[in-house]
Amino acid sequence: MRIIVYLLCLIMLGACTGDRHRGALDSSAIEDSITMAEQVDSIQTADSLKIIAARKVFKPYNLVNGFTVIDTGYYGSGTLEGYYAIVKKEGQATDTIHLGMGVKEISKGNYLYLRLCRPNYQEEMAFGTLHLQPGEYIITSNGREVPFTTLVNDFDLYRSNPNVINGKIYFWQYTDKQSNKICKINASEYNPKTKEIRRHYLFTDNPDKVELHIWAPQQKNGNIVFYWHGHSEWTFTPDFKLLK
User: Fold this and answer.
1) Non-local CB neighbours of 198 within 8 Å, separated by 6+ positions
2) 15 domain residue, yes or no
3) Domains in the chain: how many in total?
4) Which residue in 33, 39, 152, 171 has a CA-CA distance of 20 to 30 Å to 212?
5) In terms of domains, do 72 and 96 share one?
6) How far is C-alpha 38 from the chain's CA centre?
7) Domain boundary among 150, 183, 214
8) Residue 149 three-state SS
9) Does the pLDDT value for residue 103 go beyond 90?
10) Helix, strand, coil % in the chain, rounded to nearest 5
């Protein structure tokens, strides 16, 4: 009888000891999980602080005649990329523009710039890059906005590359387009005062060739120069007469 009682005591003692061990293991697992959660939270917090610390306070600056840049950054869409600027005009509503082109003054109170907009499709972008694409070339006049494409024909948003020289807008114009994208390529001038468009036929080609970089018309030695990579350059006098 004593032997049976002794054996029962040993069994009960072992059971109690086993429960204590299981309790210790469960407590340790909980402590480990809390520690891991705290570590992950600390890492995320540290990363957030690093990002915040890396951001510099942007100081607004005057771009041209009352246009103030209040923020800049990098944008992209497909193969297009560049720098954007958010501008404000004398307290009026802000606009997002292509910083490389900037704001071109046509005459007092009249300006030309390329507005950027959000595409109607999703695309994964690098951290800190805005998903934007060219939207429309805008002419502003005392708060009134006019899309340049409503003033001229045969204008290509991506390849006409307008520039303002001596109060007039010069751009590449593509006419008589064929099904294979071959068309006549012209040097064109738009006069905002008279609404007149003049153009000179230059050559025939496909402007959508990937390897081509189409430069905006430039002013050189008082004249207007159109340069097309792989072909030649054409120089015009201030009254838009072809020199060569």
Assistant:
1) 188, 189, 191, 240
2) no
3) 2
4) 152
5) yes
6) 38
7) 150
8) helix
9) yes
10) 25, 40, 35
Answer yes or no: do 143 and 174 share one domain.
no
Q: For 143-160, what is each residue's pLDDT tens digit?
A: 789 999 999 999 999 899
Residue 201's DSSP bridge partners are 186
The model scores a pTM over 0.85: no
Structure tokens at 55: 């951001």
Domain end among 119, 150, 181: 150
Please check the confidence at residue 91 and state whether its pLDDT lies above 80: no
pLDDT in tens, 172-182: 999 998 888 89
Query: Which among 202, 199, 209 has a CA at the least distance from the CA of 184?
Result: 202
DSSP string covering 202-222: EEEE-TT-TT--BPPPEEETT
DSSP string for 35-67: HHHHHHHHHHHHHHHHHHHHPPPP--EEEETTE
In this structure, are 218 and 179 located in the same domain? yes
Ranges 37-46, 85-94, 124-133, 147-156: which has the least confidence? 37-46
Please tell me which residue, 46 or 24, carries the higher pLDDT value: 46
Instruction: Tell me, yes or no, whether 48 lies in a domain.
Output: no
Structure-block tokens of residue 140: 């502003």
The dihedrals phi and psi of 83, each to the nearest 5 degrees, come to -110, 140
Q: Give the pairing of strands 133-141 and 144-147.
A: antiparallel
Let me know whether 140 and 78 are in one domain. yes
How many C-beta atoms surround the C-beta of residue 242 within 10 A? 12
Name the nearest CA neighbour of 226 among 161, 149, 181: 161
Range of the domain at 78: 57-150
Same domain, 237 and 179: yes
